[in-house]
Amino acid sequence: MSDDIHKLIIVGSGPAGLTAAIYAARASLDPLVLEGEPSSTTDQPGGALMTTTEVENYPGFPDGIMGPDLMLRFKEQAQRFGTDVRMEKVSRVDLSARPFRLWVGDPDAAEPTYRAEAVVISTGARPVMLELPGEQELVGHGVSTCATCDGFFFRDHDIAVVGGGDSALEEALFLTKFARSVTIVHRRDELRASKIMQERAFANEKISFAWNSVVDAIEGKGSLSSVRLRDVQTDETRDLPVTGLFVAIGHRPNTDVFKGQVAMDDGGYIVTDAGSRTDVEGVFACGDVQDTVYRQAITAAGSGCMAAIDAERWLEAQHG
Fold first, then answer.
1. Most confident region among 184-188, 250-254, 316-320 by mean pLDDT
2. Per-residue model confidence (pLDDT) at position 48
């Protein structure tokens, strides 16, 4: 193997990517992690936990830990075993032949920035947001995209959930375990969710519906105090006093740079089989970039472990 070809490059540095790095480094694969750039909305270093406040459901932290602090520990552990972590964003890849080629910076450059025998993709997914003023500032202070992660903090609160699909109803039903009330805000007069999920929501006395409505504004200084709803048929507005707003209108995987390179489903998630293997030999995927169901830090970390082990075994088979 040429000295300028890395054994393994990991693209992305959330729980999946850094767990893969820990395992790969301990297996003497000398992994290079390209963690993204702070200004990027698609592959922020540290992943989604960098915008999370207190994490109480990650094992090993009985008193909880702040999301950025948890990711710093992941990174320091990976570096302890020799992982090379670089704050660079991949702009182009060529996975058509080995060694694989990856570009940082100018995607039209003739020569790639890096080459690798194996690649782990762990660029994650981002929730679709409402794109309203003040929304990002209140994430972690009343605005959330994950009921499983944050529901506990909203005990006896009045909460709104935006969306009309299965995910929105699952969030709403879960939140009724803690909330005083849950209002589902949906822009149509009927839900898109499966029949059984609709029946469960309609039967829950804590759940009410704001039909034909969208959130037009988010109010609150330091923490959420209310949302302004607009009726899409009459244009009338009203204020809904809530201290929690859960946005459940979908996720987008951060896979644009890999389109046409590996197999993806209709939603753009990378398709994996037999663990973390993609349809390209030597390319593996882990975490939210291929997980449409769980989207938890602990499941992402687990799949990162799988990807590193899969990559190690694959490389061993290639080189004897």
1. 184-188
2. 79
Predicted local distance difference test score (pLDDT) of residue 176: 97
The residue written with tokens 């909880």 in the block is: 64
- CA-nearest of 100, 124, 125 to 114 is 100
Could you tell me where the beta strands, DSSP code E, fall in the chain?
A: 5-11, 32-34, 54-55, 65-66, 84-86, 90-94, 100-104, 114-121, 125-127, 143-144, 158-162, 181-185, 207-210, 213-219, 226-231, 237-240, 244-247, 251-253, 283-285
Q: Which amino acid is at 252?
A: R
Please list the residues that pair with 253 across neighbouring strands: 125
Residue type, 199: E
Q: For the segment 79-120, what is each residue's pLDDT rounded down to a tens digit?
A: 999 999 999 999 999 999 999 999 999 999 999 999 999 999
- Determine the average pLDDT of the residues in 167-194: 95
Q: Are 305 and 312 in contact (CB under 8 A)?
A: no
Contact criterion met (CB below 8 Å) for 92 and 102: yes
Digit-coded pLDDT (tens) for 27-75: 999 999 999 887 555 567 878 788 677 788 899 999 999 889 999 999 9
Would you name the residues annotated as active-site residues? 146, 149-150
Structural contact between residues 218 and 227, judged by C-beta atoms closer than 8 angstroms: yes
Q: Is it true that the peptide bond before 45 is cis, omega within 30 degrees of 0?
A: no
How much is the average pLDDT of 276-305? 95
The C-alpha atoms of residue 36 and residue 229 are separated, in whole angstroms, by 36
Burial of 96 (0-12, 13-18, 19+ CB in 10 A): exposed
CA atoms of 148 and 86, how far apart (whole Å)? 32
- Residue 295 and residue 129 in contact, taking contact as beta carbons nearer than 8 Å: no
